[in-house]
Amino acid sequence: MAYLLDADVFISAKRDHYRMNVCPGFWDWIAAANRAGILYSVKAIREDLMRGSDLLVSWARQQPKTFFLAPDAHVTSALETVTNWANSQNYNPEAISEFFGVADYWLVGHALATGYTVITHEVSAPTSKKAIKVPDVCKGVGVKWTNPFEMLEREGALFVLAPNRIETQ
């Protein structure tokens, strides 16, 4: 199984659960999973991340070009399905327009084209009219999705305390 990470996975990890200076093992695992061919993101997500000016930007710049996948003809074809789905729902025109202009659109298109599972912190909101949520699009077009914690557990990720890191007083 292979995965595509949403921007919120990187941003939330950096801000909350896996701060780079506190849990470097998470970031090392992400890079290793990419080298193993099971974890990626998409070029549009990289572009979103590059808008910052922090450790996450530096980390993203250090990743190989193969980490953030560029769209190809298969993705472009899959985007037609994603577009048709979004336009056939009862979202406000502003929500549809916004969705087509953000990285989530490309993320789901890539997942549909490749069969990869989308990893996101977003929560389904099927009755929403003002925002298109990644899990709802995934469900609508037949793409698997889950949250990062489920992925980490499924893949056997383990982050352990480095020895001699805590000094006794």
What does this protein structure show overall?
With 169 residues, the protein is of the alpha/beta class. It has a single domain, classed as 5'-nuclease (Rossmann fold), CATH 3.40.50. 53% of the residues lie in helices and 8% in strands. It has nine helices and five strands, in the order βααβααβαααβαβα. A five-stranded parallel β-sheet has the order 3-2-1-4-5. Helix 8 links the parallel strand 4 and strand 5. The longest helix is centred in the middle third of the chain and has 16 residues, at 73-88. The radius of gyration is 17 Å and the shape is globular.
Concise summary:
With 169 residues, the chain is an alpha/beta fold.
Summarize this structure as a short list of keywords or feature phrases.
8% strand, 169 residues, alpha/beta, 9 helices, 5-stranded parallel sheet, Rossmann fold
List the helices and strands and how they pair.
Elements: E1 3-5, H1 7-17, H2 24-35, E2 39-42, H3 43-49, H4 55-62, E3 68-69, H5 73-88, H6 93-100, H7 103-114, E4 117-119, H8 134-141, E5 145-146, H9 148-154
Parallel strand pairs: 1-2, 1-4, 2-3, 4-5
Helix pairs in contact: 3-7, 5-7, 7-8
What is the ordering of alpha helices and beta strands?
Answer: EHHEHHEHHHEHEH
CATH domain topology: Rossmann fold
CATH architecture designation: 3-Layer(aba) Sandwich
Low-confidence stretches are none
Mean pLDDT: 94
Sum up the overall morphology in one term. globular
CATH class descriptor name: Alpha Beta
Strand count, sense and barrel status of the largest sheet are: 5 strands, parallel
Helix content: 40-55%
